[in-house]
Amino acid sequence: MKQLKCACIEGLDATSVDVEATFTKGLPSFSIVGLATNSIQESRDRIKSALLTNEFTFPPKKITINLSPSEISKSGSHFDLPIALLVALNDVKCSLDGFYVFGEVGLDGKLKDTHSIFVLILSLAQQGLLKKVLIPKASVEKISKIPNIEIYAVDTLSQACDFFKFDSKEQSRVINSEFSYKKMTINKKSYYYDTQYVYDFKEVKGQQTAKRAALIAAAGNHNILFEGSPGCGKSMITKRLQYIMPPMSLEEILEKAKLDSLDAIEPSFHPIRVFRSPHHTATKASIFGGGTQSAKMGEVALSNNGILFFDELPHFGKTILEAMREPLEDHRLLISRVNSKIHYETKFLFVCALNPCPCVISNYK
């Protein structure tokens, strides 16, 4: 029996998965067991096509692929590459120990990137489980930002097979890249920042008190509420707040990129803190997260280490405003469902804006 290491996502973190393969006598068949969802079951056809179009001989045996531990539900096309390698190398003597392998396999054998690969590798590296990883070249730009791991990249399934068959691993080695942004060092720790701003406070005319309050809020990560008539500059100041927030550490930049990937957004690794501004008609589930089968992130979790802006605060539902107490006080949020219970970090700067009370305006007139 041969095996390779892969992983699946549970909430925000990765769980290591052993991909095992056995080849026994019997009627030729190809089955995948271990609570594999449709996205993994479909990989059988992709792998067959990739092997046959690249002149591999599909073994005429009963092939069983097991994803262990079997009690955890697994999904994602990144399991294609480890499964294909175990089938292609079934009769080849080579060492597969110590490597995690990720990648989607195309019908022609070309390896592709997926949104989950960065999240999985970063989480495994943070847990200290992953030291060496084989990935598609399409994933290199993102994965090379993760420090303290050995990264090897190939472009096709044939190259991946040669990687293990022959002693040529150094040719596929990828050098970990550093951020090109400016940085400052405080207590021997680097913090990155950018001086290119989409919005600038110099565009705000007047409102000296509000700008001073915004500066204090950004420096000390204090929550702030702006009250004023429509058009006086509440939203204008708030949109510029993220550009005067403190510089970001490497861990914060990677965490931001991780949340982007989980939200199906291509991570940019830009050292500007995230800015989330949900509309007041947003549902409670979209703000705090939810889901029937598995809990999904909401705006509160996606704004971690950044800014969460509620414009027109009184128009948000009462249940939403009352539920904000836990993430603001504890900086953590528990989403509890029958099938999953997930903790989210919620260390964000909460900014609100509202118009003056009508009775105040009436008295003023």
TrEMBL record:
Stored InterPro entries: CHLI-like (IPR045006), Mg_chelatse_chII-like_cat_dom (IPR000523), P-loop_NTPase (IPR027417), Ribosomal_Su5_D2-typ_SF (IPR020568), Ribsml_uS5_D2-typ_fold_subgr (IPR014721), Sigma_54_int_dom_ATP-bd_2 (IPR025943)
Coiled-coil stretches noted in the UniProt entry, renumbered to this chain: none
Any Pfam family: ChlI
Residues covered by the Magnesium chelatase ChlI-like catalytic domain: 200-360
UniProt-recorded Gene Ontology molecular function terms: ATP binding
Top-rank taxon: Bacteria
PANTHER family membership: COMPETENCE PROTEIN COMM, MAGNESIUM-CHELATASE SUBUNIT CHLI
This protein's name: Fis family transcriptional regulator
